Amino acid sequence: MEGIFAIWQRDLLKFFRDRARLFGSFTMPILFLLIFGGGMSGSMETMMASNMPEGGEGFNYVEFVFPGIVSMTLLMTSIFSAMSVIEDKDFGYMKEILVSPISRVHIAVGKMFGAATVATIQGMILFLLIPLLGLSYQLTALIQVIPFMFLLACALSALGLLFASFIRSTQGFQLTVQILVMPMIFLSGALFPVNNMPTWMDIIVKINPVTYGVDVMKKIMIDIENAQAAVLDAMGLNITVWGREVTIVEEILFIAGFATILVLFATLSFKRANA
C-alpha cells in the first residue's frame, strides 16, 4: 500500500503543479459544452421533440449533454494521464520503480489511481458550471455520482496504461489515443442518443465502456422518476443488450470488470517490456 500511495501522490502533485495542463484539459470539454449545450440546444430539442409522441415536453438537451461532457472529461484526462508512463521511461524514473521491491501490479494500480483521481477532480470542477447553465441537479445526486466517476476513470486510465506500456514515444501515444478517443466519445451517447444505430455500429456502442459510464451518470443525475417515458427514450436511457434492458448494477459491474482486466493486461505488458 505504501508503494501504491507513493505513486498516486507523485502523479497528484505533478498535476497540481502543472497549471498549463490543468487549464488545457478543460478546453475541449467546455468547447463541446458551449457548442452542443448552448449553440445547438434549440435545434436538438426540436429534432428530438419531432420524433417523440406527445411532443416530448420536458426534454432539456443541456441537461442531457452535461453528464456526457463530464464523462468526456474523465475519458480524456484518464487516458492522456497515462502518457506520464512514457515520460517516466524517457527520464529513467520508471526503471527506478521497476527495480524496486514494488510489484508490477502495485505500480499499475498506483498509476491508475493517480490518473483516476486527477480525472475525478477535473470532472467535479465542471460541477461549478451547473448554476451558470441554468441546471438544477440535486446535491445528493452529485455526491452519489462521484464514486462512480472515480470507477469509470479507473477503467479508462487502465486502458491508457495498457497503450502506454508498449508505445515508446509520446507522439505515437497521442496519435493512437486520438484515434481511439473520438469514436469512444461519439459512440457513447455523451452528445446524442445512440438508440437507432446500424448493427455494426450498435455492437461498438455496446462494448464501449464509456456508453455504460454515460448511462449511469445520466440515470443518477437526471430525475428519471418524474420524466416521461418518451423523454427517457429520447435521452437514450434504455440501453438493451440481447433484447434485455441493462440495469445500473450490471453497468457498474461491467466497468469494474473492464478496469480489472485491463490493469492485469497492463501489468503483463510492463513485465514483457522490462523483462
Write up this protein.
With 275 residues, this protein is mostly helical. The chain has one domain (2-273). Helices cover 74% and strands 1% of the residues. The chain contains 14 helices and 2 strands. It has helices at 2-17, 19-24, 27-39, 41-50, 61-81, 83-91, 93-98, 104-125, 139-166, 170-186, 199-207, 209-221, 229-235, 248-273; strands at residues 240-241, 244-245. A two-stranded antiparallel ribbon has the order 1-2. Helix 1 (2-17) packs parallel to helix 8. The model has no long low-confidence stretch (mean pLDDT 78). The chain crosses the membrane at residues 20-44, 64-86, 107-130, 142-163, 175-194, 252-270. It comes from Gracilibacillus halophilus YIM-C55.5.
